Amino acid sequence: MDRKDIAFVVGVIGNVISILGFLLPAPQFTAIFNAKAAGSMNQTPYVIACISDVIWIVFATVTPAGYVMLTVNAIGLSIYIAYLSVFVAYSNYQSKRRTLVAMLLSIICLVAFFVPILFIRDQKMQNIIISWTATGSTIISLVPSICTSWEVYKKKDLTRLPLLPLVFSTASSLIWLLYGCLDNSKYIIVAYSASAAVDVVQLGQLFL
Predict the structure, then answer these.
(1) Average pLDDT, stretch 180-196?
(2) Which of 49, 101, 125, 153 to pair with 147, CA 20 to 30 A apart?
(3) How far from 3 is each of 6, 11, 71, 183, 205, CA to CA, in Å?
(4) What pTM, to 2 d.p., does this model score?
(5) What is the C-alpha separation between 129 and 72, in angstroms, rounded?
């Protein structure tokens, strides 16, 4: 097997780990569906994740990263949209409105950002802009996790760091970081180095 084949295998493993991680909140949303009430659940991370997934899907279509990045983000986007649909269906009026407005604004911003880029004649420059945007989206999506770490540090409340999701998140970050190294993609390397760093810090908080 050459480097490209190994990268593909690592990407497939990354898909499996990431998809299992996407499915971890499923029992929570099943409970919401059964109870017909969303309670006080925070939907913001799921909206941010949807935005990031869309940007990585665009990245995968214009760069050599290929199918493994496309499939994992397309599946992730579908799962998160399903979660948000359940949340919107059974949340109170204010949460419903806030979520729908956030999703609508996200769509408008994504369209307003990407449509002009599609008209850039320099293909290389177009790819660079999209690639760094994808990297930035992952770093921005880490903000809720960073805020959680800060709250844990201040309040010493480890219940905010559930072990299983954190293990899957760390494994996913590390496997995609390895994929980025094998694929020679600095954009993937930067994105998942940041993600792995946050995950490792949270694991440290949990066990130290």
Answers:
(1) 94
(2) 101
(3) 5, 12, 20, 8, 36
(4) 0.90
(5) 21
